């Protein structure tokens, strides 16, 4: 306990000295860490490295880092902290780049903060070629756009401008993709407009960006403009345009693209075919979706899943199970989306035993790690069957934190079966997790009303008003 207290005291002192930048105090704390044999603690070591750096003692920082015997201390945080200080110091860019190379040789994997720290070191003329290599690593590791880091993306853009790389087509395409995914869609549009000679990849990135930002009608229009400018769409263009049409429920647009698919010869492409199945299903044409599916010769798991999802969307639970069993009989291994559809269908058709069997087979047969959607489906199955205590115990045994969809499935079961005790507990959880979701209030109010507790039901409705929660009125497309 005394040792733990000492660690906490030293940790607080290190944090407080970050503001004063007093090197004398830092060396005293360093001495205490050595005296009490605490150098193996990575969080103290990282703070010490950071503190020496911020006090301007880069040589001392490097010496401390190089002489440590505890390899576990040299993690991505430590390396990034060290690279940051050297990268931001005048005439130390070469040392920063050398540290980055050493880091990679040790097997430590850089993250977006490491690359962000490294970018200032690439802004000199002599490091231009290195900057290009760093750019390639950023793309390879997928840390621009996939992490949704707008600030880091802007820094990469800045480096590209300084090195004259943004005039390269593939760089501009990557930047458009990054801004679309990172909440900077206006920047993506500006970049797109600066490209004079747009190829099919550029158009694809822009159409996908519109889809990712829920601008489905604009995505369809962009696809039409692309074709009017004489750019022939590829399978990626067509799949994205079909996705936009499906989201709009635009059957005429989907049918038009279907005719283009037949003319261009992409009808045999499984990705395109599965997108077409989804379009017809979401536009109300389950028979058309089924006809497209039957015409696919070599059906991949994506095609099977698209058709299974189509049947699930139309409430054809029995057909979902039939298709799934047929898929398994043909030796096609399901993916996690397939199993979400199947588990949901089992819940809606009352197939509890079969549903639990499918759930158990996820890991044992298919090696698929269950996600929140799968857990929510199991809870829904148990709740619909009236096994509310079992559903609650299942949630409590989950290896990950239950999200609102999981608790919401249990609350729905409590409303159906009138379980006030569990319903109150679950509703309170959901009020904290989703304070603006009116559905949770309505469900709890309905449970009270079912028990004849009209005053309590009215209190819940009033609480909605006090908390500024409004129930959205129903509407039809």
UniProtKB/TrEMBL annotation:
It holds the Pfam family PPR_2. It comes from the Eukaryota. GO terms for molecular function: RNA binding. Keywords: Repeat. GO terms for biological process: RNA modification. PPR repeats lie at residues 75-110, 199-233, 300-334. PANTHER family: (WILD MALAYSIAN BANANA) HYPOTHETICAL PROTEIN, PENTATRICOPEPTIDE REPEAT-CONTAINING PROTEIN. Belongs to the PPR family. PCMP-E subfamily. This is Pentatricopeptide repeat-containing protein. It comes from Papaver nudicaule (Iceland poppy). The lineage of its organism: Eukaryota, Viridiplantae, Streptophyta, Embryophyta, Tracheophyta.
